[in-house]
Amino acid sequence: METHDWLAERFEEHRTHLRAVAYRILGSISDADDAVQEAWLRLARSDSSQVENLGGWLTTVVARVSLNMLQSRKTRREDPAGSNLPEEIAGSAERAGPEHQAVLADSVGLALLVVLDTLTPAERLAFVLHDMFAMPFEEIAPIVERSPAATRQLASRARRRVQGADTTPDADLTRRREVVQAFLAASRDGDLGALVAVLDPDVVVRADQAVVRTGAEPEVRGVDAVAAIFLGRAKAARLALINGVTGMVWAAGGRPRVIFNFTLTGGKITAIDLVGDPGTLEQLDLVTLPG
Question: How many CA atoms lie within 13 A of 58 on its CB side?
């Protein structure tokens, strides 16, 4: 038991970094948490006494797990849960400690996450690990099953794509607020036509474990099923800026209880992620908006 507790403490020392790596590769905080949890399970099952550099070992494991998840997502042609999400894994700079400030310093913004989603899984991983976390190509190469030279080319192609993209999100953010505001109004008013109009036919709603414990389904897919969830409801929800990006929040007793993160593609809502984990909520910069 003592060995397990010691290993858990060591793992917690690396959790913030691992979550940052996974989030940047996957663009989804729920998927990132799954990848980090899988890394812990693998560590617990392994002979850690043979691991010289635990941080490097865990980063490699999380990267491998994230790459597999990304490839599986691409095969199923799923949109990532977080293509248009704000950076949830870190709070404001004023509240952050040194490690969180380091994460903030190279955080992936909304527009860049969208650009990253246009890359192949291998390109995205090579770019994230090398350009954002300074991992040598010699260490990335085995993860993507390529030579160091080929891995360097992957990152180079990704870098050109990122540098050539328009990452000014102002117009997108304005449109985002209009869509989220329309969704909230339609939900409150019970206007089925208006609600369906802002939803993609294959829209998905995902809830984290904290929200599931309140009775929500972990996942609901399809415009009819999703519309049924929100029709005539969300009366207590409010528009909010979540780390600077428009979403929704439900608060009770003066405290936020659930945030609604929206993924938009082509002006339609393709995903809604419901986050109620208290630890995550405490890290967010939330500003309630009128309306």
Answer: 28
